[in-house]
């Protein structure tokens, strides 16, 4: 089993809040921690750090794109030392909000 925790900061380029048709900067850090009897050799699983440019079209649609840095720890060791993998890449997120409580 794994716990996943993310903290995200969103800063509009203009004004003090993110409204419709607002470009913004998003920064986040997301960590994955394993627990329970089926945890491999390590408790730390991975960490993701991102810096994204975003745009809110309306209250239901946002798109973000930018840089992602990912650090993974493998469940094995070499010479008694943990093995880490560091990945860098581009990420694109489409955030769609669907309110199922509203009638069509």
Low-confidence parts, pLDDT < 50 over ≥5 residues? none
- What would you call the structural class? mainly beta
Number of helices: 0
Taking Cα atoms only, what radius of gyration do you get, to the nearest Å? 18 Å
Strand content is: over 45%
The SSE string, one letter per element, is EEEEE
Total number of beta strands: 5
Shape: elongated
First CA to last CA: what distance?
38 Å
What number is the mean pLDDT?
89
Helix proportion: under 10%
Largest sheet: 5 strands, antiparallel
Please give a structural write-up.
There is one protein chain. This protein is mainly beta and 104 residues long. It is elongated, with a radius of gyration of 18 Å. The chain is built from no helices and five strands. The protein is 0% helix and 70% strand. The chain has a five-stranded antiparallel sheet, with no helix packed on it.
Chain-wise SSE layout:
Blueprint: E1 2-12, E2 22-34, E3 44-58, E4 61-78, E5 81-96
Antiparallel strand pairs: 1-2, 2-3, 3-4, 4-5
Explain briefly what this protein structure is.
With 104 residues, the protein is mainly β.
Q: Keywords, please?
A:
5 strands, mainly beta
